[in-house]
Amino acid sequence: MALGAVIFDFNGVLIDDESVHFSLFQEVLAEEGVMITPQDYHERYLGYDDRRCFEAALLDAGQSANGARLDELVARKAVRYVAAAERGLRFFPGAAETLERTAALCPIAICSGALRAEIEYGLTRLARLDRVSAIISAEDAPNCKPHPQGYLLALEALQARRNGRLSTHSPLAASDCLVIEDSLAGVISAKGAGMRAVGITNTYSANDLREAGADAIIDSLSRFTHDWIQEQFGS
Questions:
Q1: What is the mean pLDDT of the chain?
Q2: Structural domains of the chain sorted by starting position, each given as residue range(s) with its CATH number in brackets
């Protein structure tokens, strides 16, 4: 492949906060009379954005999930996430270095079901916000993963930036984009957009990620280097 861009998922890839999100979903849903277990979250809801997670959990519990109610639940969780983030965020080892190293090779983007404010806050804490060429957040993509919309929007944003900076207007194809994902829904989303997907075993096993369609597997961000990319995908 001709490496034109790398697109990172955020939660579960760069920031180690899936347990925080689960706790907040569990807490907010409990206030609505809905109980979810870690197994429920891992098998049913992980990979969804906040809105879809709340919607699915409410419907599974036989409750209504109208727009106004979902808006309120998403806002309630967002406030609590800010409080949790201010107490301290955990990042996966090598997150900042990987963003820096990869941005020196090609443009990078973030495609996540997290809210934009959460993504920008995390990247600011990593001191790498300026290395990211495009961010696609939950607000940008009404259809959450495993739908490919988010990655297709990331491609459009990267294409627009490329065309604005290069006089040759060299096209950026989906097949030139490499995605790093920790969730099965994320791998399916990336493959549905026509991109190559690298599964990182922070959340699911290598076998699960391969079955979802991952083209290659890494067990840590430190493995994601120029030499590794060439070895797996060519130059």
A1: 94
A2: 5-16+90-233 (3.40.50.1000), 18-87 (1.10.150)
